[in-house]
Amino acid sequence: MGEPKRIVVVGSANMDIVLPVARLAAPGETILGGDVAFFPGGKGANQAAAAAKLGGVVWLVAEVGPDPFGAALVSSLQQAGVLTEHVGVSSRPTGCACIYVLPEGENSIVVSPGANAALDPRTATARLEAVGDVGFVLSQLETPLDTVTAVFASARARGATTVLDPAPAQELPAALLQSVDFLTPNQPEAATLLGDARPVIRDFADAEEAAVRLLSLGPKAVVMKLGALGCLVVDRQERHRAKAHQVQAVDTTAAGDAFNGAFAVALAEGRTVAEAAAFANAAAGISVTRPGAQSSLAGRGEVERFLRR
Q1: Given 16, 165, 251, 257, which residue is catalytic?
Q2: Which of 79, 201, 240, 287 could form a disulfide with 274 if both were Cys (CB 3.0 to 4.6 A apart)?
Q3: Is 146 designated active site?
């Protein structure tokens, strides 16, 4: 299949502060949780680490703060194999995410953007162009929206394939959606983009209906991430279903990031969309069985063994 294409992830780098809880506190209520843990995270950094651990040639374009959290995040990325020369140091503090994890593995997250908000369009596009020949550009919505829009416009102009994780959920401008090759929402994110009060996705048929509606907003293809169902890829010609693997979920943090990183790696290696979706499902399935964000990401051999089970 030749040399894999280069991958650039433009996005956030956060320190995740994880606290296990029996339930979420009501307004004005104080409850006791378990022992706090610190994990390198941020959707951009997670996706870059996921792709690098699976053998991708990956750069991260991001900003961290001049503090211990920033240094720890860069070190974690380098250990995963991510190229970090385009991770800058801002005067603002490193971004943080406070993650409350429930017993069944679901989570509730509050993000403080910090240095992530300092990644402006001019800086991000200049760093992207400095990488040279790029095959895939991934981004999310934890950095400024005008930065993501500018990066995707630049990527498209240079012939790169763009992959957008529309998280955290928000309405998006047409100019951005029309620059997206693969839009990868989960169910609540799809509902936000469609202006629905809540997602009503019970099966693959419901997911396909939502994906077709999302296609009308401009992306070339939609990859619906459906949790326990699996995923569905829909473009204007084809449909591909990939069922989820049955695992015991411990912590769903970064499962979507594991999926996106693996999906990009498989495509960069020349695999078909259907093969990439199956590979990404396996990477995401492994990630939910472990606590933390980057600490939950699987290596190449582990994913391949998981697929052969």
Answers
A1: 257
A2: 240
A3: no
